[in-house]
Amino acid sequence: MRRQLTYKTRWYGSTLAVLDRWFPSSKTCSACGWQNPRLTLADRTFHCTNCSTTIDRDLNAARNIAQHAVLADQLLAPGRGETQNARGAPIRPPGPRAGGQEAMKREDTSPARPVPPQRSDPLTLFTLDDTGHETAKRA
């Protein structure tokens, strides 16, 4: 999901901001930062005992996410550029230890032996002879 969001935001020219999965956004006061660890999902209003703020739980969480989220581009190492898929160029840019390895296709590229066209006959049985070649027998 994260990879798709990153791809789409770059495609449309927008930015992606992320936050730690376990950040207590709804249990933290968006005004002063006080945390209420006893807040449950049934509590729809956040009441801060530190600064007396009373706010909708979802609005409080949204404000905390907006304050604490980090742009996803800042989490990546700078200067890496776009990576390629397995059919493209090397995934990592060449470094000082690059041994000249390039992306290569791993399929068999030897010329194929021509196979004569054959008709399928469901009553034909194939067996191997002494040399390992198939021989057909009519059932």
Give the SSE layout.
Elements: H1 2-12, E1 17-18, E2 45-47, E3 54-56, H2 57-68, E4 70-71, H3 72-75, E5 124-128, E6 134-138
Antiparallel strand pairs: 1-4, 2-3, 5-6
Key traits:
single chain, 139 residues, alpha+beta, two-stranded antiparallel ribbon
Question: What does this protein structure show overall?
Answer:
There is one protein chain. With 139 residues, the protein is an alpha+beta fold. It has a domain at 2-75. It is built from three helices and six strands. It has helices at residues 2-12, 57-68, 72-75, and strands spanning 17-18, 45-47, 54-56, 70-71, 124-128, 134-138. The strands form three sheets. Strands 1-4 form a two-stranded antiparallel ribbon. It starts with a helix and ends with a strand. The mean pLDDT is 75.
Multimerization status: single chain
Q: How would you characterize the largest beta sheet?
A: 2 strands, antiparallel
Q: What string gives the helices and strands in order?
A: HEEEHEHEE
Counted by DSSP, the helix tally is 3
The unreliable regions are none
Roughly what fraction of the amino acids lie in strands? 5-15%
Helix content: 10-25%
Class from helix and strand fractions? alpha+beta
Distance between the termini: 56 Å
Mean pLDDT across residues: 75
Number of strands: 6
Shape label: elongated
Q: Strand arrangement, largest sheet? A: 1-4
The gyration radius over C-alpha positions equals 31 Å
